[in-house]
Amino acid sequence: MIDFLNKPLFLAPLAGFSDPPLRSVVKQFGCDVTVSEMISSNALVFENDKTLKMLEKSELETPFIVQIAGSDALVIKKAVEVINKFDGIDGIDLNCGCPVQKVVKQCAGSALLLDLDNLSTILETIRKYSNKKLLSAKIRLGFDEKIPRILAKRVEDAGVDFITVHGRTRSGGYSAKVDYEAILEAKEAVSIPLVANGDISSQNAKFILSATKADGLMIGRGSIGKPWVFHEIKTGDSVDETTKNRIILCHFEEMIKYYGAHGVAIFRKHLHEYSKGLENASSFREEVNHINDCDLMRDKILEFFKI
Prior knowledge:
Elements: E1 9-11, H1 20-27, E2 33-35, E3 39-40, H2 41-46, H3 49-53, E4 64-69, H4 73-83, E5 91-96, H5 101-104, H6 116-129, E6 134-139, H7 148-157, E7 162-166, H8 180-189, E8 194-197, H9 205-212, E9 216-219, H10 229-235, H11 241-259, H12 263-274, H13 281-288, H14 294-304
Parallel strand pairs: 1-2, 1-9, 2-4, 3-4, 4-5, 5-6, 6-7, 7-8, 8-9
Helix pairs in contact: 1-11, 4-6, 6-7, 7-8, 11-12, 11-14
Catalytic activity: a 5,6-dihydrouridine in tRNA + NAD(+) = a uridine in tRNA + NADH + H(+); a 5,6-dihydrouridine in tRNA + NADP(+) = a uridine in tRNA + NADPH + H(+)
Keywords: Flavoprotein, FMN, NADP, Nucleotide-binding, Oxidoreductase, RNA-binding, tRNA processing, tRNA-binding
Pfam family, one: Dus
């Protein structure tokens, strides 16, 4: 389902950002594979409406992968059985890299890098009970110590179809320099496709592919406020202002379609990013922070971005 010969581009699972509206937009501008926001396996088991809504996708999303987090194999099994009920999901990804303390305290996310036996058990559990085509894992280079070869090989042996490696340790958070050489070490340790992740932009994508020998790239924060980055990486061309502004309006309309009137408030954080560096951005952000009416927000977007 994923053509790794053509170096596919993935949208990373971004809490609070990679919802169906954004995923729909990036699919129109060069993104090949989309991944849901990270979903707690514990929350999935309870099957509340808010959590199940996170399994929804836009009509453009194929392949679509759901990312889950957890540390208890039995709970993971039950979560997988919930996911199995939903059509249109092409794969399950296990989060083994989230550095957030509340996730780590539950022995999930990057904490799994400290317990490789449990990491293997969880992946094997997903493989055994999932009815989806794909299984993958997203890891970091290690918790404190960089052990990319050990981790990549362990994940491969657990039966995944591909692996995504974020080029920092857990202790490196999101600010440490990304170690692309360490991603290369992980790549050399396995025979399955590897996707590189960490500080990827249209300016350095070609270098990262070469330096890591990766089979694809996953873009996360580099797409916030710049969902056209996928198009720029694919084509090598910059997106003109007219197209950018059309994308911004398209994103807003997708938000309203998906969230209803509540989408106005949620879209403010995106407008903060879209307006960065533009003239009068500060006053624009202050103004939209107090707008809750859909039509008024649309008018302000049209006016500010000169659409």
